[in-house]
């Protein structure tokens, strides 16, 4: 049963990889959607269109400003396994706007890490294999061994510190309020991607 399940997951991964984009292609897509006043995803609401516009600005900023410490750089460049980081995302996702540029920054440092991006709503079979607490939370990074297509590990939808903040708040108040979401955005700005970098370095082992 487990072998059959693994074969099924590998087939799903192969299918998604065939539809994947690199980071430059993803950023070009998001910029084009802003020009068209549109968004990725099945729902094209005004709110999601506005989030896409806001996230394009955020990603532009992070693309220019994310910095790696010397220690992180050494650990990333020392990684020798040949892997693909396959990331599920959507242009409207607030967490993704802060995280995708950081993932790209890390992947750029090591030719052994191939970053590929797919859209969640166009890859439902893949998303359903990597749910977070039963939900289709994004961004979701799947680390894949290029030789075997074995899933080595996952990351997301948030860095571990932000995940803890969200879990504590939900436990206390039942759901995330607009005020908390604003606080979370401020946390991302203050953190400057460092918590995501730390988690990704741990992912590399």
Automatic annotation (TrEMBL):
InterPro entries on file: Thioredoxin-like_sf (IPR036249)
Pfam family, one: Thioredoxin_9
Name of the protein in question: Thioredoxin family protein
Organism: Winogradskyella poriferorum
Lineage: Bacteria, Pseudomonadati, Bacteroidota, Flavobacteriia, Flavobacteriales
